[in-house]
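<tokenise_the_fold>
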Amino acid sequence: MADSFVRMKPISEREIRASFVNCTKGEAKRLAIPRDLDARPWEDLDFLGWQDLASPGRAYLVAEQGDRLVGVALRRAASSAGQVRRSMCSLCLTTHSGDGVSLMTARRAVGGGNSVGAYMCTDLACSLYLRGKKDVGPGGRMPESLTLEEKISRTGANVSEFLQKVTQ
């Protein structure tokens, strides 16, 4: 059954850099690409997401949209340090305590200085949480009657909707 899921194909650094729609070519050339692309669990990824380790306020998301890759540069809003709360990712519907979910904003690809925001898993590991490959702890995944395939489809639709807002 797991083989029927649409998975992200392994992509190269060059493909990643060329996919960015909301930054200049120079910015895309300078952004920090993960060094472990070959070791990523591509068969379990619906999109590629990562934090910039050198700049904790930056993150990146690359997903297949139709027949092309779309990459967006994200800014993470400052955390509300000291507040113990549970928040839910708007992409995969996983709940995290503390800083496990962050407001991520992306500059629109067109239209000047406008931006689009969504609450996302801070580590952008939504695909792994959905599949139980990464543990979020007790209460992180609410019981649902949906199949794994349906949850993956819903997450894909949520990612697609976010990217459409950035590209329109």
User: Anything to note?
Assistant: The chain has one domain: 6-167. Residues 6-167 form one domain.
